């Protein structure tokens, strides 16, 4: 019984890891790389959902991007699909700010549906909504 539970938990973590990797590629505007993690979504489709394009003035306001923080708030399972409702916190420096630490952040509310296909988790649906942006004084 314990073995079965451990396998199920690892599978769920695999979906979360795939979502996080996918969201980072989307943030960095690497739509071709993100599309390889999808089923039924092209790089062109993904460019329409781009994270930088949804934050403030768009890509021109990002001089330096730092690694994101993720908070998976809920998970739903429906047949072969796993839907994650999560917040991606994007840490960055705007143009003209030279700092080894981020000075600003933005949060994105994301809903991502993944399906196991050929042994890998694939993104089959992605919603990406800007929530807020502010200055950052902590550590990412």
How many domain modules?
1
Low-pLDDT segments, ≥5 res: 1-11
Radius of gyration: 16 Å
* Mean pLDDT figure: 90
Short structural summary:
This protein is of the alpha+beta class. 29% of the residues lie in helices and 39% in strands. Residues 1-11 have low confidence and may be disordered.
Walkthrough of the structure:
The relative contact order is 0.19. 29% of the residues lie in helices and 39% in strands. The protein has a single domain, classed as Nuclear Transport Factor 2, Chain: A (Roll). The protein is α+β, with helices and mostly antiparallel strands and 140 residues long. The chain contains four helices and five strands, in the order ααααβββββ. Strands 1, 2, 3, 4 and 5 form a five-stranded antiparallel sheet that branches.
Which key terms come to mind for this protein?
five-stranded antiparallel beta sheet; 29% helix; Nuclear Transport Factor 2, Chain: A; 140 residues; alpha+beta
Secondary-structure topology with pairs:
Blueprint: H1 2-27, H2 31-35, H3 43-47, H4 51-54, E1 64-65, E2 69-78, E3 81-93, E4 104-117, E5 120-135
Antiparallel strand pairs: 1-3, 2-3, 3-4, 4-5
